[in-house]
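To illustrate this point, we now present one chain and its tokenised fold:
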Amino acid sequence: MKEILNYEDQDHAKERMAAALRCIGDGVIITDVQGIVEYMNASAEQITGWSDNTALGRHFDDVFQIIHYQTGEPMIGPLAESLQTGEAVGLQKDATLVAKNGSKYYVSASCSSIKDTDGVFAGFIVVFRDITRIKKMEKELWAERNKLQVLKEEAEAANKVKSEFLANMSHEIRTPLNGIVGMVDLTLMTDLSAEQRENLNVAKGCAISLLTVINDILDFSKMEAGKLTVEKIDFDIEKLFEEIIKAHLGTTRKKNLAIASHLSPHIPRFLKGDPIRLQQVLNNLINNAIKFTEQGTITVVGEVTKRDDEEVEIQFSITDTGIGITQKDQEKLFKNFSQVDGSITRKFGGTGLGLVISKQLVEIMGGSMRVQSELGKGSTFSFLLPYTIGNRPAAKTSPLSIAKKTSKPLYLLLVEDNRVNQMVISQVLTAIGHKVDLAFNGLEGVKMAATHAYDVILMDIQMPEMNGVEATQCIREMEGKNRHTPIIALTAHAIQSDRERFLASGMDEYIAKPVDLERLTHLLEWVTDSKDKPELSLNASARIDANGEITFGESQGCRSREELVPVIREMVRWIRELRDIIASDDVLAVEEAAHQIKELANLIDAEVLKGLAFKIQLMARRGDLPKALEQVTMLECEFEAYQNGLYCGEVKTC
């Protein structure tokens, strides 16, 4: 443009410039040095609503009125800014142009100075563009993004509610199921006719099938939430493979099917991975093959596809001679809650989750799954899994008959709020020679643990008054360093993350409901044999008061005043901060602060302060901060009394 303006023939230059400006889509307004409009192109006329004739001679700010897009307040336009600064400027992004007819447009604009052929300042040129459509699209995109964010949050919240519902339903279903399996086991230990024994075994099989369905649904829920984890432990693949085949012999015989298997000798016997999940996948696929095969053979094969000195890749395949699947229907196989035909559910049963879970488990373990099938000619499901070459796993205890009397009777505490579970577990344990005390909730269990020297405590998790995790933490606090009673969790929450939470709370092992009584007897042997237990004596300061509350009795020790002063100073700091920490609603920080106060109180044998700090810890663990605050008030009063006693000589020092 400068070249055009520098032409000697100014009229010719202006004519060419005007022709060029008429063709562009951006609005252009040219003013003199005072900001009086001298020219505007067609696009500028269209956007502003002013014609070239009516705008000429007017000040630029009359034609190009700028307001704030939200408040409507007038704003300084680009030309006014250029006049003030002497520099080229752009338009603020939150500005709106008001047209002559009152219409409003979002515009982007810039202003530059014009010089004549002698280089003398001659005026301004303002170039602007209507970006209303772009702004509208941006708003729509932001609105859609916000909508998607809301939908995402709603979906996550719904998924969380669903997961919590499934977890609670798991507990509600497993509890009566535990009673059914347990009572059947108890009855199977008595003298029965062959027909009665067969009927009871069928009933037990049905209960275990129901448990399998529940586990499928829970596994699927955990996968959706990304919470399903796999282990990496040493296992014997030959033994696992053999046990899986043996487990299906009965079912295949009942259907007059043959089952053949081959495990390549090139597969290392000991691998490192998750044997339980591998077993789950193989069982799912073999069960499917048996379910959809009326005659012929089920073939299970394991063979090496890759191997080096440290790792091996194995392909497992399960082939049947069953009904087969069309290419179109194969696409439905790995969809949630889906089966090829709705009539299949009615005829064969199942949740429609087995293959979905199996495929996802394989992928979680680092592998892949595929299917080959033809309608009427059977199917082959195969999957690849990578394994690290492992070592011989530690030897396990040999199977034990439930009815066999134990050679080492134990004194047990069963903390369980469900009466059916109480009856089943206590009767079996009593029948094999153990002595069992019963507690109906966590608080009652803690009180009994404080007054009895139990060999093992069996602790339910979900209970009124105090749950199993809280009860375990209380017991560990009472025991101190001089004692450790093995605690086994009885839980419907049979996933790895829960196991880690239970162990972190102070438990030694866990067993899932319905309780496998044979596994329970093995666990009892393991936790009692694997610990060199010191003399069983409770923390000398732990007491149950007249109201049944857990307290800490006064110690008979003494401290010098020099030892007390720095501890008191530190306690003052923590107690002062405790109210602010509670006000922040940070339960973990409250628990930590209470723990620090309890430890400090322990150093100076201030057992009442220690007991109050312990109660604040418990309230924080339960998320009950109002009650924690009540205990803080009592703690402050007691601490003030302690300090007064110290200064008045009432607190014993050496």
